[in-house]
Amino acid sequence: MPTLRDAVFLLGAPRVRDLPPDTGAEVAFVGRSNAGKSSALNALTGQTGLARVSKTPGRTQQLNVFALSPGHRLVDLPGYGYAKIPQALRHTFLTLTADYLERRRSLKGLVLLADIRQGLKAEDHALLHNRNDLPTLVLLSKADKINRGERQRLVRELAKIAPETAYLLPFSAHAGDGLEETQAIVLEWLGLAPSAPID
Ligand SMILES: Nc1nc2c(ncn2[C@@H]2O[C@H](COP(=O)(O)OP(=O)(O)O)[C@@H](O)[C@H]2O)c(=O)[nH]1
Ligand SMILES: [Mg+2]
After folding, report:
1. Ligand 1 within 6 A of 182 CB?
2. Strands of the 8-13 sheet, one edge to the other
3. What CATH fold (topology level) applies to the domain 4-189?
4. Top mutation candidate among 33, 39, 62, 115 for ligand 1, by most atoms within 8 Å of CB
5. Could you say which ligand is closest to the alpha carbon of residue 43?
6. For residue 64, which ligand has an atom nearest its CA?
7. pLDDT by residue (tens digit) across 49-61?
8. Where do the EngB-type G domain residues begin and end (predicted)?
9. How open is the CA angle 16-76-129, to the nearest 5 degrees?
10. Domain ranges of the chain
């Protein structure tokens, strides 16, 4: 059975029609630029160089596909909300993402990254409401930047405004908070959850 560690970069698709065949299972990662999406992908797959971690946000302009096997994929969607990106390009990002979320049948779950200190912004809400039927995990990233009490307070605050279908989890790619739980959820969505031990 493939694991997250098996993920290799497959291709970058500028349009939905450039993606691999819409079969098998896929989990997509979305988030504002600089939210920690690349760091999360690297931590989840245990590969430091899988998705490039950039200090200059807004560079990814395509759907980057990583394959665990031909039928099990992770898709890194373009970051959004970066102020210095021209309006026209920003529009392309959002339509590409919306197009992907609406049309992709093999998409089984969505992981949305949001800096825990910044919470959910307008674009995050738009994405979360784009496909209400889609299982969604909201990773509140960079949780290592704040203490536990503050984390819990922020999770409670955000839970009030997030859609009911979204599951909120404090996450830190650096410290490992929420890492194992996220790995388990992603594998489950991909149909790769280890079966219960027989005893
Ligand atoms: N403290 C802390 N910083 C992080 C964490 N994850 C990412 N960062 C930092 O946030 C910045 C953006 O990260 P990156 O993964 O490139 O974000 P992306 O634009 O969403 O792909 C980088 O400087 C990272 O080192 C984390 O868990 N904790
Ligand atoms: Mg990135």
Report:
1. no
2. 8-13, 63-69, 72-76, 25-31, 107-115, 136-141, 166-170
3. Rossmann fold (3.40.50)
4. 39
5. 1
6. 2
7. 898 876 555 555 7
8. 23-192
9. 75
10. 4-189
